[in-house]
Specification:
The chain is 42% helix and 14% strand. The chain has nine helices and seven strands; from the N terminus they run E-H-E-H-E-E-H-H-E-H-E-H-E-H-H-H. Strand 5, helix 5 and strand 6 form a beta-alpha-beta unit. The longest helix has 25 residues.
Length: 257
């Protein structure tokens, strides 16, 4: 059994390349236990997700979002937007309402600057009150960014920041494997941190499209978002079609060790 807890749909504007119905169709084909929709800075796909999920009762639904922290300007127009990401999953209906309120307030705080929500980590922690699950996230998550920039001690410090705000019962260390040569070393370091702090581990696909054949669409969308040609943005693009949904058996093979 496997639940994909980190997936973006086309409602992550110019970042996700599959509609919620395609993600759920593929999740059902792969016999996934559940699917979390974690689009950027909002629940724009939540209504569509709820409708689609009725046709696939065997696939559980999780509602979440990936917040963009530390923004000073809108994220379109640059190959690699600034800031950090924070992946949050709502725990029940109360958690959903709390998370939706936090996102709404952040967009209102940005004023007329569309695409630049303003979050405060302490405010988020107060709003959560134990009703969200906090995953350490992708390469732009604060823990992974710290690991890349300062090694394991820096990653430990970044993880402690999340633990201090959200509590050890609510923080989960996320492992990713997209075939990058350094993915195993990063996962080893993160798994060691999880052991050190007695935290659970989850493996995710950091999914941006349902099936590998959507990869060309994803690269085209990335170019549009960055306002670059495909040749100009090539160095920032993933090297392969690895950000798709996988079965529990395939994830077990990738993360078994």
């Amino acid at each position: 059994p496997y639940a994909e807890l980190h997936a973006h749909s086309a409602f992550s504007f110019l970042d996700g390349a599959s509609q919620p119905e395609h993600l759920f169709e593929e999740a059902a084909r792969l016999r996934l236990h559940a699917l979390a929709l974690t689009d950027h800075d909002g629940f724009y796909g939540a209504a569509r997700m709820a409708e689609v999920a009725e046709s696939y009762p065997q696939v559980g639904t999780v509602f979440g979002t990936e917040l963009s922290l530390g923004l000073t300007e809108p994220q379109n127009g640059v190959p690699d937007p600034e800031g950090s990401h924070l992946l949050l999953l709502a725990d029940g209906q109360d958690g959903y309402h709390r998370l939706a309120g936090a996102v709404t307030s952040a967009h209102l705080a940005a004023g007329s600057e569309k695409g630049s929500p303003q979050y405060d980590l302490d405010d988020l922690a107060a709003r959560a009150d134990g009703h969200w699950r906090v995953l350490t996230g992708c390469r732009k998550g604060t823990v992974r960014q710290a690991l890349e920039q300062g090694g394991e001690s820096a990653a430990d410090t970044a993880l402690r920041v999340l633990l201090d705000r959200f509590g050890s019962r609510n923080v989960v260390v996320e492992l990713l494997d997209h075939g990058d040569p350094l993915d195993s070393a990063r996962n080893d370091a993160l798994a060691a941190l999880a052991t050190k702090h007695a935290l659970p581990l989850v493996a995710t696909g950091n999914v941006h499209y349902a099936t590998p054949d959507r990869f060309p669409v994803a690269t085209a969308l990335a170019a549009v978002r960055a306002r670059r040609s495909l040749d100009e943005i090539d160095g920032w693009l993933p090297a392969a079609d690895t950000a798709h949904l996988r079965s529990g058996a395939e994830m077990a093979r990738r993360f078994g060790r």
